[in-house]
Amino acid sequence: MKKPLKITKEMTIGEVIQKYPKIAFIFIDYGLHCIGCPMAVPETIEEAAKLHRIDLKKFLTDLNKVAKKT
């Protein structure tokens, strides 16, 4: 049975960065350079993916790969 994801689409960018600070480079790699901006902090992972036309499933997979290592 698969383990549940640590990071979900409902989590905010601020939550993820606070919980996994070393994950910031994934956001930057995906073109989300403003992860500390006041507008980005409350944005969910799903909202960010839609806004920046990012494949949500791949983005979550990459985020969780890094989160798993931390």
Structure description:
About 50% of the residues lie in helices and about 0% in strands. The chain has four helices and no strands. The longest helix has 14 residues, at about 55-70. It has one domain: SP0561-like (Orthogonal Bundle), CATH 1.10.3910. The chain has helices spanning about 15-20, 25-30, 45-50, 55-70.
Poorly predicted runs are none
User: What is the H/E string?
Assistant: HHHH
What would CATH call the class? Mainly Alpha
The biggest sheet amounts to:
none
Radius of gyration: 11 Å
**What is the name of the CATH architecture?**
Orthogonal Bundle
**Count of discrete alpha- or pi-helical segments spanning 4 or more residues:** 4
User: Average pLDDT across residues?
Assistant: 90
Q: Assign the CATH superfamily.
A: SP0561-like
The number of domains is: 1
Estimate the helix proportion, in percent: 40-55%
As a percent range, the share of strand residues is under 5%
Instruction: Compute the separation of the termini in Å.
Output: 22 Å
> What is the overall silhouette?
globular
Structural class designation? mainly alpha
Q: What is the total tally of β strands?
A: 0
Question: What is the fold named in CATH at topology level?
Answer: SP0561-like
